[in-house]
């Protein structure tokens, strides 16, 4: 089962790397600044949080099998806390969160959440 965690980490790294490259390509093609809005930090933080949360759930799978869904929701709440501590003050500094600021955080957040949810559902179905 350790293979499951490693495979998740690899898939997430590839997914976010490809998304980051596409994100930069789109910004470049529109002549927009590439590395503004804490975009690199957003991708890294989302990757680290997703891997950490998935790893935590993986370690807790036997002891708290019935509560894994709630633990997953707790991990999602942690992501929001990190957003409001690390990113929100920077994005809101000018009084407005622009579409570029929103995309810089939301794209890696949603991709990470999608892969986490998909992988966890697949993993839990195998456990039954």
From TrEMBL:
UniProt keyword annotation of Lipid metabolism present: no
Residues passing through the membrane, by range: 7-27, 39-58, 70-91, 103-124
Keyword list, A-Z: Membrane, Transmembrane, Transmembrane helix
One Pfam family, short name: DUF6168
Protein's name according to its UniProt entry: DUF6168 family protein
Source species: Psychroserpens ponticola
């Amino acid at each position: 089962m350790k293979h499951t965690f490693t495979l998740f980490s690899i898939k997430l790294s590839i997914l976010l790397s490809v998304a980051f490259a596409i994100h930069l390509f789109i910004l470049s093609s529109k002549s927009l600044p590439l590395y503004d809005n804490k975009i690199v930090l957003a991708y890294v933080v989302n990757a680290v949080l997703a891997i950490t949360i998935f790893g935590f759930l993986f370690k807790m799978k036997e002891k708290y099998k019935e509560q894994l869904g709630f633990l997953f929701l707790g991990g999602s709440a942690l992501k929001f806390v990190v957003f409001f501590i690390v990113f929100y003050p920077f994005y809101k500094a000018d009084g407005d969160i622009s579409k570029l600021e929103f995309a810089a955080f939301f794209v890696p957040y949603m991709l990470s959440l999608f892969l986490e949810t998909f992988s966890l559902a697949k993993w839990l179905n195998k456990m039954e």
